[in-house]
């Protein structure tokens, strides 16, 4: 999840970032991405490295493709300069990041709420929100500069997105976004931390949808007891985007089951 929020900043801001906060961030928290020679990355150079939009993107995003293209351009330029994504990722932004994340939307029903914890540059939440405008997406991010970036992009473009600054395990975040239909994350942490962070944000019957790699099945076997202890049952590996993206996106899905209420036993009278 990275370092916690600055002491002087708010723990969350579901609305637009105040001007004073933006100004302070620009002065104190702007981080330039540098190349191997130590020179700042040039947004013009990184933009040139962004490959053409793949034809399959039209199938994934439909009539919202232009918005997806804008997001890819912003990641390739401003996202690199502000240290949110590495310059080496730009040539594979579409296949490894934007499309890989967007197909997660296959696992969501219309009207559901998805919480993306440790959202960073907006992956996977933003691509899902673009591809699925009928789904509400909440981006949870502890670092101020990342949260500001998310507000700047999503605020004027994606009415189905809300940004909350904080850590998933904080009480204020649980109170703000708890009861979600699904919680997702990408490259945040392993299940020993991810399970207890995610479960409290889910309603009973809600799903953990963790983007994982080739070791997904091994992680389930290794940490099954941890998932169960967190109240996450029936973990399984699900592939999204089969026949659309190559390779397909690997997701570990588990269902949140609230513990049954304890039965009260009558105290026996002693005479």
From TrEMBL:
Enzyme Commission code(s) on record: 2.1.1.-
CDD domains attached to this UniProt entry: AdoMet_MTases
GO cellular component, one term: cytosol
Keywords: Cytoplasm, Methyltransferase, rRNA processing, S-adenosyl-L-methionine, Transferase
Segments for region (Disordered): 33-55
Annotated residues for binding of S-adenosyl-L-methionine: 118, 123, 168-169, 186
Subcellular locations according to the entry: Cytoplasm
Sample GO molecular function, one term: rRNA (guanine-N7-)-methyltransferase activity
Enzyme class: transferase
Family that this chain belongs to: Belongs to the methyltransferase superfamily. RNA methyltransferase RsmG family.
Function: Specifically methylates the N7 position of a guanine in 16S rRNA.
Protein name as it appears in the record: Ribosomal RNA small subunit methyltransferase G
Organism of origin: Tsukamurella pulmonis
Species lineage: Bacteria, Bacillati, Actinomycetota, Actinomycetes, Mycobacteriales
């Amino acid at each position: 999840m990275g370092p916690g929020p600055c002491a002087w900043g708010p723990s969350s801001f579901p609305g637009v970032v105040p001007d004073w906060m933006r100004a302070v961030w620009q002065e104190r928290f702007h981080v330039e991405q540098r190349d191997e020679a130590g020179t700042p990355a040039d947004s013009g150079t990184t933009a040139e490295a962004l490959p053409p939009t793949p034809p399959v993107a039209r199938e994934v995003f439909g009539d919202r493709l232009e918005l997806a293209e804008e997001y890819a351009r912003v990641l390739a330029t401003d996202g690199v300069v502000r240290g949110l994504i590495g310059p080496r990722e730009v040539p594979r932004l579409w296949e490894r990041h934007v499309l890989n994340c967007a197909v997660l939307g296959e696992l969501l029903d219309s009207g559901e709420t998805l919480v993306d914890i440790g959202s960073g540059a907006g992956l996977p939440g933003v691509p899902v929100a673009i591809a699925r405008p009928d789904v509400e997406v909440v981006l949870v991010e502890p670092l101020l500069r990342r949260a500001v970036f998310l507000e700047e992009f999503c605020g004027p473009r994606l009415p189905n997105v809300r940004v909350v600054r904080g850590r998933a395990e904080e009480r204020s975040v649980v109170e703000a976004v708890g009861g979600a239909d699904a919680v997702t994350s990408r490259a945040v942490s392993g299940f020993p931390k991810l399970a207890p962070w995610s479960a409290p944000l889910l309603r009973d019957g809600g799903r953990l949808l963790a983007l994982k790699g080739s070791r997904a099945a091994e992680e389930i076997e290794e940490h099954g007891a941890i998932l169960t202890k967190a109240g996450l049952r029936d973990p399984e590996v699900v592939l999204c985007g089969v026949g659309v993206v190559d390779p397909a996106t690997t997701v570990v899905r588990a269902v949140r089951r609230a513990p049954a209420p304890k039965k009260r036993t009558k105290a026996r009278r002693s005479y």
